[in-house]
Amino acid sequence: MGTRCLTYVYDGETPIMCMYRQYDGYLSGHGQELANFLNELTIGEGISGKSDLFTYANGMGDLAAQMIVNFKKSPGGFYIHPIDFNQDCWQEYEYHVYEKHVVVKNPTEVIFDGYWSDFLSFTTEKESV
Prior knowledge:
By secondary structure, the protein is an alpha/beta fold. The chain contains three helices and eight strands. It has helices spanning 27-39, 60-71, 116-128, and strands at residues 4-11, 14-21, 42-44, 56-58, 78-80, 91-97, 101-105, 110-115. It is globular. The model has no long low-confidence stretch (mean pLDDT 91).
């Protein structure tokens, strides 16, 4: 049985996407992959010059689209779900991604709330424990 997780992306305080991962949703799996993805990005408004995919996001909607492209490599495994904070997908973790920080729940208890760079350190520490 897989470790399921949900990843919500927010534009300001408004949720704009929910991505379901069917397996490897634990901190040292999806958490670390998500942290690596986020820490490679710069968020801005507008595009001047040629920006490479996965290095620059033109707002949180663009970040959400790039996140799907980054994680979705084959059929299955990842799905887009309706934004519903009461859904029960047997998720063991929820990742809430904001422009500058991430909140991780387990799924009702907050186990991390901090900046993207601190999230990367947090997932790395959890892997070595």
